[in-house]
Amino acid sequence: MPKMSSFSRNAISLMLCLILAIGSLRLQLVEARVRDLCQVKPSTSGLCVPSTLGIYYDEETQHCHFVGCNNKRLFSSLDDCEKICNNSRHIKLRSRSQRQRVNETTN
After folding, report:
1. pLDDT digits (tens), the chain, 107 positions
2. Distance CA 75, CA 59 (A)
3. CA 91: distance to chain centroid?
4. How many Cβ atoms are within 10 Å of 93's Cβ, its own excluded?
5. What are the angstrom distances between the C-alpha of 49 and each of 14, 31, 41, 53, 65?
6. Which of 22, 47, 81, 93 could lock onto 75 through a cystine, CB 3.0 to 4.6 A?
7. Residue 66 in 3-state DSSP?
């Protein structure tokens, strides 16, 4: 079996690092998007019709509800909203971001 040159080993190591970094960045972007979806506040201005009724996560009650108006559905169902916003990973991230917001306002 031929020996790999130092350059080849370094190139492979660099490629693996890039792949891992990109994968980690994608995961962070997905988590940020989920966090953002669960923090959207419903619009209560204007007249709502049943077809524009939105599904929103209420941080106070920690449950999803049909409320407000939205012409773009954030979640396909109440069950999807609950699964996304109340999973253990999201709860941990939400708690961390709330602590950071409190720290920023007190400093």
Report:
1. 566 667 677 767 667 656 655 555 454 444 445 557 788 777 666 666 555 678 888 888 989 988 766 656 778 889 999 998 888 877 777 777 677 767 777 76
2. 16
3. 11
4. 16
5. 55, 31, 18, 6, 16
6. 81
7. strand
